[in-house]
Amino acid sequence: MTELMNITTPQTLSAAAIQQYRRDGYLHIPRALSQDEIREFLADAQDQLDRHEKISWDEEGNGNVMDWVAEPEAKSAAMRRLALHPGITGIAEKLAGQPLRMFKSELLRKRSPGGTRTPLHIDAPAFPVSGAALTAWVALVDVPVERGCMSFVPGSQDWPQGMDLSFDPFESRPELQWWPRVTVPLRAGDCTFHDARLVHMAGANETDTARISLATVYMDAAATYHPDADQPYQDEVNGIEPGQPFDTDRYPRVGSSI
Ligand SMILES: O=C(O)CCC(=O)C(=O)O
Fold first, then answer.
1. Which of 126, 188, 215, 219 could pair with 103 as two cysteines, CB 3.0-4.6 Å apart?
2. What is d(CA 84, CA 91) in angstroms, rounded to the nearest whole number?
3. Ligand 1: does its nearest atom lie under 6 Å from the Cβ of 220?
4. Is the pTM of this model over 0.85?
5. CA–centroid distance, residue 118 to ligand 1 (Å)
6. How confident is the prediction along the chain (258 residues), in pLDDT tens digits per residue?
7. Would you say the CB of residue 118 lies under 6 angstroms from ligand 1?
8. Is the CB of residue 131 less than 8 Å from the CB of residue 222?
9. First CA to last CA across the chain, in angstroms?
């Protein structure tokens, strides 16, 4: 009972926290999961990482950034429950201020030892989606600074009107190099939310434990499909015509009222 009372839910999320997210473009939610959920989801995640094919992100001259299982929510009931978690997705809807559906989920592992730094980037140019999107990044093990937690550039999600968004944000907005960055270590079961236009990165894993997390992207429920030649995720979109909404079971509606 005491533990349940400590868990952050859509109902206990404060107006100040919502305001902070909209100002800074990210928010740290401590204790998004119960201890039982952490145990169950971590065991399932380790099983998936052992058994399934992984996509590897290697950077020339910088080694392996991380690897991940794509669509883990389609591979086990536990990962589907986590990707569609009513508490986490209910908070996401409150932060976004609109109904959402899931765009994609990835089960991430930053290797131990040697998973290298995740470069500074923004997500939005990679998504063939109209309108707003945000990511919930749920830690399934403790992620101190030394294990490669994320850093965010608060306020960088507000791109000047008409400016093209580029994956490397310093290309179009070199001044962002001089903006403060906030580094956010997470305990297992904590979660961060970040706006798809926010500049962010993660450190290297210097510990002897792999960093394991689930990163799920949610989009405006009314978002439509806008493919563009350079978007890596457009190959994963099936059964949706350009200009049409993502109105299929592959992109389920989420939130605490679903
Ligand atoms: O997990 C990481 O190192 C980076 C994750 C990230 O960039 C994202 O979820 O948008």
1. 219
2. 12
3. no
4. yes
5. 7
6. 456 558 889 999 999 999 999 999 999 999 999 999 999 999 999 999 999 999 999 988 889 999 999 999 999 999 999 999 999 999 999 999 999 999 999 999 999 988 999 999 999 999 999 989 999 999 999 999 999 999 999 999 999 888 888 878 898 899 999 999 999 999 999 999 999 999 999 999 999 999 999 999 999 999 999 988 777 777 778 889 999 999 999 999 999 776
7. yes
8. yes
9. 24
Distance, CA 1 to ligand 1 centroid (Å)?
A: 33
Q: In 3-state terms, what secondary structure has residue 225?
A: strand
Q: Which domains does the chain have, with CATH numbers?
A: 14-236 (2.60.120.620)
Residue among 105, 118, 153, 165 whose CB has most ligand 1 atoms within 8 A, to mutate: 118
The distance of Cα 82 from the centroid of its chain, to the nearest Å, equals 12
